[in-house]
């Protein structure tokens, strides 16, 4: 499973990339707002750090303007994945971008049928929003399982399942078990995945015993 980070914070992306943990980045208009910076410069800086797909979302809702915005975003770097919403205009734009050979991330997916349509429209990635389904009392992970089953029924569909709206380390594990191709995780959750009290306790014990040996490896 590939790991993307879900943020427009360039400093945090740089830190995680240096650890060799990142396969890509996703952003959205809310994350750009949170960064307090311009989308074009932020995406350009991220693309300098990350070789993998960097999702940049259009803000238009009509096909013609989506195309113009998508082309402008794609001009920034070869690894930009144009992010479009799961609407009729978004899917139409997805088909056009895909036919032009561009990567497309179709976002705001909440049903398996929507994911099926996105795959038919040539999406590189479909982004089902797990946490937001959990928020309304559903089990978001069921959606990943349904999409996995449907895509596996039709091997000609090459769209990758990008589990989004990830809120907890458990979401990451469940997405992996359900067969998501990619998980996009906020930096705080990504860092939290590594922590376990028994790891810390075990390391302290090993270091204490090592000191008693008086040895040095170097
Ligand atoms: C994914 O592409 C979205 O940017 C993101 O995962 C949404 O997460 P949220 O529901 O926590 O805002």
Describe the structure in your own words.
With 218 residues, this protein is an alpha/beta fold. The chain has one domain (2-213): TIM Barrel (Alpha-Beta Barrel). Helices cover 53% and strands 17% of the residues. It is built from eleven helices and eight strands. It has helices at residues 10-18, 29-35, 39-49, 63-76, 88-99, 112-120, 130-135, 140-153, 169-177, 187-193, 197-213; strands spanning 2-6, 24-26, 54-57, 80-85, 103-109, 125-128, 160-163, 182-185. The protein has an eight-stranded parallel barrel with strand order 1-2-3-4-5-6-7-8, surrounded by seven helices. β7 (160-163), α9 (169-177) and β8 form a beta-alpha-beta unit. α4 (63-76) packs across α5 (88-99). It is globular. The relative contact order is 0.12. Erythose-4-phosphate (E4P) binds next to α7.
């Amino acid at each position: 499973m590939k790991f993307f980070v879900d943020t427009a914070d360039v400093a945090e992306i740089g830190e995680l990339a240096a650890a060799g943990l990142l396969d890509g980045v996703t952003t959205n208009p809310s994350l750009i707002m949170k960064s307090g910076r311009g989308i074009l410069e932020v995406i350009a800086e991220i693309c300098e750090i990350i070789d993998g797909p960097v999702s940049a979302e259009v803000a238009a809702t009509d096909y013609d303007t989506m195309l113009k915005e998508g082309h402008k975003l794609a001009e920034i770097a070869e690894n930009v994945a144009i992010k479009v919403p799961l609407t009729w205009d978004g899917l139409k734009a997805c088909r056009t971008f895909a036919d032009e050979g561009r990567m497309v991330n179709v976002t705001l997916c909440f049903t398996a049928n929507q994911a099926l349509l996105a795959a038919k429209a040539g999406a590189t990635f479909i982004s089902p929003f797990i946490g937001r389904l959990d928020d309304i009392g559903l089990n978001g992970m069921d959606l990943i399982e349904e999409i996995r089953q449907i895509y596996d029924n039709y091997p000609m569909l090459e769209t990758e399942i990008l589990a989004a709206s990830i809120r907890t380390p458990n979401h990451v594990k469940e997405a992996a078990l359900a067969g998501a191709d990619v998980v996009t995780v906020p930096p705080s959750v990504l860092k939290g995945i590594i922590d376990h009290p028994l790891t810390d306790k075990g390391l302290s014990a090993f270091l204490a015993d090592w000191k008693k040996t008086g040895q040095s490896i170097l």
